[in-house]
Amino acid sequence: LHAVPGESPTDTEKRVAAEAAAQLVEDGMAVGLGTGSTVAFLLPALASRGLRIDCVATSPATERQARELGIAVGPFEGVERLDIAIDGADQVAPDGWLIKGGGGAHFREKIVAAAADRFVVIVDSAKPVDALSPPVPLELAKFGLAATLRELGDVELRDAPQSPDGGVIADYGGPVDPPGDLAARLASTPGVVEHGLFPPALVGDVLVGRGEVADPLGLAR
Ligand code: 5RP
Prior knowledge:
Order of helices and strands: HEHEHEEEHEEHEEHEEEE
Number of strands: 13
Radius of gyration: 17 Å
Mean pLDDT: 96
Distance between the termini: 31 Å
Strand content: 25-35%
Oligomer: single chain
Bound molecules: ribulose-5-phosphate
Strand order of the largest sheet: 2-1-3-6-12-13
Number of helices: 6
Helix content: 25-40%
């Protein structure tokens, strides 16, 4: 690991976590690529390894960056499973619950994480928290949007174009704890296409950049 001149301390942490995760990828693997500024450090680290891998991307931005770096990205429609998926997170609770979707890509990110034998989360040291707190990103169906918002209560629509899958990106601002209860409520609310609470059962490893070193986070689960 080497310092990059002019890089912010947070970016260094993102980069070292991303570089450690890139080392987990092996020749011939099917790989899910997440979305966000931490994943933006993963892609060059992965490209520089020169592996023969087949990737699926969780957003047009990731797909574009990966292709520019010469990483093979294909459609996800015909792929049954992935060997590994690597993605960032907005918050990581001590028991392994995550909040994701700061970039509005949580719908695709959750499908990709669920399809992977190993889901590796890469974060800087600000992301592990004692308890999850709002907002929780949502993707909502456009159809019946006003009624869904009324049912959910404390939700703010993002000032962003709709998701690549046609959904409306929003943030739930109510209490999150316990996350399992909120996840169940959101999942059972018609009109909620997906929410950004990821359960511990999905999470394989969490790699945290601290200073210039990436450490695995021990999860209390
Ligand atoms: C995008 C995500 C990101 O992984 C999450 O927001 C973390 O982003 P960053 O790596 O930029 O801090 O869930 O939908």
